[in-house]
From TrEMBL:
This is Exodeoxyribonuclease 7 small subunit. SUPFAM superfamilies: XseB-like. HAMAP family: Exonuc_7_S (MF_00337). Keywords: Cytoplasm, Exonuclease, Hydrolase, Nuclease. Bidirectionally degrades single-stranded DNA into large acid-insoluble oligonucleotides, which are then degraded further into small acid-soluble oligonucleotides. Belongs to the XseB family. The keyword Disulfide bond does not apply. It comes from the Bacteria. It comes from Kribbella turkmenica.
Length: 64
């Protein structure tokens, strides 16, 4: 799942939770799915941060 897909689904999960009207069981399932999606987004962001740091370090090592 891409970052964008995970983020869009997470937004929808949050919208449903904020709207209310779901049973406790449905709310818990939504919450759990939201946690999974948030973790997916965080992994993507952490990976991007690491790639940027490596690229910056490689750039900084190059002679001018």
């Amino acid at each position: 799942m891409s970052y964008e897909q995970a983020r869009e689904e997470l937004v929808e999960v949050v919208r449903k939770l904020e709207a209310g009207g779901t049973s406790l069981e449905e709310s818990l399932a939504l919450w759990e799915r939201g946690e999974e999606l948030a973790a997916t987004c965080q992994r993507w962001l952490d990976g991007a941060r690491e790639r940027l740091a490596k690229a910056q370090a490689a750039h900084d090592r190059k002679p001018n």
